[in-house]
Write a structure and sequence with these properties.
Blueprint: H1 19-37, H2 47-59, H3 63-73, H4 83-98, E1 102-123, E2 129-131, E3 149-150, E4 155-163, H5 169-177, E5 186-190, H6 197-206, E6 211-215, E7 230-231, H7 258-261, E8 269-272, H8 274-282, E9 306-327, E10 332-342, H9 354-372, E11 379-386, H10 394-402, H11 404-410, E12 411-416, E13 426-430, H12 435-442, H13 455-463, H14 478-484, E14 489-494, H15 508-515, H16 520-538, H17 546-563, H18 571-597, H19 602-617, H20 653-662, H21 667-693
Helix pairs in contact: 2-16, 3-9, 9-16, 10-14, 12-16, 17-18, 18-19, 18-21, 19-21, 20-21
The structure holds 2-acetamido-2-deoxy-beta-D-glucopyranose (4 copies).
One 2-acetamido-2-deoxy-beta-D-glucopyranose (NAG) binds next to β1, β4 and β9.
Catalytic activity: Release of an unsubstituted, C-terminal glutamyl residue, typically from Ac-Asp-Glu or folylpoly-gamma-glutamates
Domain PA: 157-223
GO biological process, one term: regulation of meristem growth
Length: 697
Amino acid sequence: MSQPLTTIKSFTSTKPPQLCTYLCLIILCIIGFYSLHHPHQNPTPKPQTALHFHSLFLSSASNSTISSYLRALTLHPHLAGTKPSLDTILYVQTHFQNLNLNTHKVSYKTLLSYPRHSSVTTHFSNGTTLDMPLNEPGVASLDVVQPYHAYSPSGSVKAKVVYVNFGTEEDYRKVSSMGVNVSGCVVVVKKGEFLSRGGVVKVAEAKGAIGVLLYAEEDDGLRGGGIERGTVMRGVGDPLSPGWAGVEGGERLDLEDNEVLKRFPKIPSLPLSLENADVILGSLGGPMVPPEWRGKAQRVGPGPSMVNLTYQGENKMVSIQNVFAVIKGLEEPDRYVLLGNHRDAWTYGAVDPNSGTAALLDIARRYALLMRGGWNPRRTIILCSWDAEEFGMIGSTEWVEQNLVNLGAKAVAYLNVDCAVQGPGFFAGATPQLDNLLVEVTKKVEDPDSQGATVYEKWETTDRLINIQRLSGVDSDFAPFLQHAGVPSVDIYYGRDFPVYHTAFDSYDWMTKHADPFFRRHVTVAGVWGLLGLRLADDSILPFKYLSYADQLQGYKDFLSNLLDESISLNPLTTSIQELVSAAIKVENEAKRLRKQETKGDFVALKIRALNDRLMLAERGFLDADGLQGRQWFKHLVYGPPRDYESKLSFFPGIADAIFQSIGMGRRDGQAEVQHEIWRVARAIQRAASALQGELT
Ligand SMILES: *[C@@H]1O[C@H](CO)[C@@H](O)[C@H](O)[C@H]1NC(C)=O
Ligand SMILES: *[C@@H]1O[C@H](CO)[C@@H](O)[C@H](O)[C@H]1NC(C)=O
Ligand SMILES: *[C@@H]1O[C@H](CO)[C@@H](O)[C@H](O)[C@H]1NC(C)=O
Ligand SMILES: *[C@@H]1O[C@H](CO)[C@@H](O)[C@H](O)[C@H]1NC(C)=O
C-alpha cells in the first residue's frame, strides 16, 4: 500500500494564491536548490517529497484558468482538417510553450470526409412535398458544418420509408415478422445505445435498405433542435493506412482497395432532426409498431410516404496534427505515463472534447508550477492533444501505430479524458490493475457537488458499490492504446449522455448554463486525472494490483460458465487465472519487501526497476500477435469490441465472436470454434501471469 495522503481540497476560487502557497513555493525552491547542490545525500526526491508536490498539485487548482482555456478553445467550430482547427492547434502548442514545457507536433496525412450538399425531401401520399433542410434553429454561422455522416457515400435515393426502431437485428426480425421487407426502402432509425452510427448503417445495408435517416430522441427537452453529426466509418484510424501510420510520403492504399472499401458504408445516410423524424413517422401506414418500441411512431410502413435522400460529400487527404508536451522523467526517462485528450470537434466542442482539453491545459499549468518548485517526475509524463478523433480515433491511432515498439516497451499507462464534463456524477473506466489507484486518488479529491465530501464518497453512495467500467468500446482514444498496444488505460468523465452531443449547441454557453456553471466539475476531473498521472509517474513501485485483474477475469469465467453448455470446458481459464493469482501474490510480497529496503541504494533501485517492468509488461501478455479473427488490428483478447453488437459479452471479444459464428455452424464445429478461442484467451492470461512472474520456464 502506498502512504496515505490526507484529503486535500482540490477546489479554490479565483482568489489570488494564498500566502501559504507562496511559502510552500519558497520552501520547495530551497529543497530543490538543496538537492541540486547535494547530489550525494539526496540523489532522488524521497517519497515524502513527491507527496508534498502531489499536495501542491491539488491545492493549485483554479476554475478561472480552466474556464478561460475552454472559452478560447470554443470561440469557433474547429472540425479536424479545417482552418479554424489550426487555431486550436496553435493555442495548445503556445500554451505548452509558454509554460516552458518541451513541446512538439506530429502530423499525418489522412483521409477525412466533409459534406458538400445534402437534402431530404418527403413526398406524402396526399401529393404534398416537404423539404426537410438539415438546419439547427438559430444557427446562422457558416462555420458550423451542416449535419452529416462522415464517410457516407455520395448518392441520391428515393424510396418508401420503413421505421425500424433502433435498427438492431431484433428490430428487423420484428419488422419482418409483420410481413414488411425493407429491401429497396429508406429506413428511419432511432439512435440507441446498442449500435454505433456505423453499425446502424451496416445492418441496414445488410437487410437491403438503400438509405438511412438517423435521429436522436429527446428525453429532457434540452437538445433544442440539435442534429447529431458523426462518422459512419468502420474500424479505427486512417482508412488508407490500416495498421501503419499515415505519414507524409508513406504507403497508402488505393481508394478502390478492398481493405479500404470494407471500411465505408455502401448506402448513403444522413442525420435527421427529431421534429422531421416525427413528421415522417407520423405519415406512415402499414402495420402498427410493436408496443415495446414505445415513442411516438404509430406504424412501420413501408410508405406510403417516400423520401428523397440526397447526399454529396467529399473525401480528401488533409493534414492532421497531434500536439505533445513532454516532461522528462529524472530517474526513469524511458518510462512513459501518457495523458491524452482529443482536440478536434464537430462544432464548438465545449463538452466534446474541449472540457477535457481545458483540464489537460490546466494540468500542464500545474505540473509546470511544480517544476518551478523543483519537482521532476521520476518517469516521463507526456501530455497528448489528439486530432481527428471524431472521424475514427485517427490522430491517436496513427501515432500509436507509428510508435508501437517504443510504447510496447516503455509505456506504463495511458490516461484518457474525452468529454470531461457532461453533467453531474463521476464515471470511470479502467483496466482492472488500475482500479485500486483510481479509488485511492478519488479519495484525495473533493467532490464538486457536495461540500466536504470526496469524489470517492459521493461515487460510493451514488453507485452503492464503486462501479468501474471496462474499456471494450472503441469510443475514444484509449482504444488504440489498450486494444492495439496493450497499455493499461483509464478513462474518466463527469456526467453522461449529454443532450447536445455532436450538435451546434455544444458550446461554452451551454456548458456554463447546464453542465458546469462554476467549472467545479472541470476542476475535479483535472484533479483526479492529474493526480493519477503524478502517482503513476512518481511512485517508486508502480501502483498496479493484478489481483484485481485476476478477480475480474474470474468473474468473466463465471459469467461464461452460465452462458455456455457443459460440453465446452472452461478449465483452461481456471488454470491460467490461478497462475495469474499466484504471480500477483508473489509480486505483492516482493513489493512489500522492496518498499522496506527502498533507501538501500542502487542494487535495490535496480530490483525495483525490474519489478516495475514486470508490472508494466503484464498487460501486454493479453495481446495476441494474430489478433481477433478477421479483425487483426484488435490484438487484446480480454478487452475489445465484439463483432456482434448484441453479444452478451463485453469482454473476451474473440470468444464472443466465436459464439456468434457458431450459431450458423454445426454443433461440433461451433463448439470447436468456441473452445479454440477459450484456449487462446487462457494462453493470453498465462502470458500475462508469466510476464508478471518474470521467470522463464
Ligand atoms: C425482400 O425482398 C428482396 C428483394 O425483393 C428479396 O431478395 C428478399 O429475399 C426479401 N426478404 C425477405 C425476408 O422476404
Ligand atoms: C399531407 O400529409 C402530410 C403528412 O401527413 C401533412 O403534414 C400535410 O399537411 C398534408 N397536406 C395536405 C395539403 O393535406
Ligand atoms: C432527389 O433530390 C435531388 C436533389 O434535390 C434531385 O436532384 C433528384 O432529382 C431527386 N430525385 C428524384 C428521383 O426525384
Ligand atoms: C469559480 O468559483 C467561484 C467560487 O465558487 C465562483 O464565484 C466563480 O464564479 C467561479 N469562476 C468561474 C469562471 O466560473
